[in-house]
């Protein structure tokens, strides 16, 4: 939804349909790497949206490659966008940057290490793409129901324990 709103704003401000289309693509397609990790790295075969979401929300991931969620790729794409003078690719980068910014804000509470470093492919590689090393092993609690989990994500179990 944020990508569509940002694309609308981009279209109004610049009048560029390629830029607006790129914003939508960048804000949405960046998450294709989750599907690639799920199928290729995790070798999961449950292809329902609920199984896919549960795998991530409940913290069952063993390896976190996420090639599209990396600063290194964004730098290469930025150079290519500049070289080609591509409005579409510039929009893709804007949409993806918005997506990464939201990921940093919302996923930072689940990452015991430096959330900014996490979005470096080199950092993840240096840690063997190991999810436990990158995210810790603390149990997560997911809201009941697909849409609540999708919208609100999970929280660490310690956040729900009473203090005292």
Write the layout of secondary structure elements.
Elements: H1 2-14, H2 17-29, H3 32-41, H4 49-57, H5 71-84, H6 87-107, H7 115-118, H8 121-126, H9 131-135, E1 140-141, H10 146-152, E2 155-156
Antiparallel strand pairs: 1-2
- Compute the number of structural domains: 1
Number of strand segments? 2
N- to C-terminal separation? 40 Å
Rg measurement, Å: 17 Å
Query: Mind describing the biggest β-sheet?
Result: 2 strands, antiparallel
Low-pLDDT windows of residues? 160-164
The overall pLDDT, averaged over residues, is 82
Structural class: mainly alpha
Q: What's the number of helices?
A: 10
Q: Approximately how much beta-strand content do the residues carry? A: under 5%
Helical amount among residues, as a percent range?
55-70%
Shape: globular
H/E element order: HHHHHHHHHEHE
Strand order of the largest sheet: 1-2
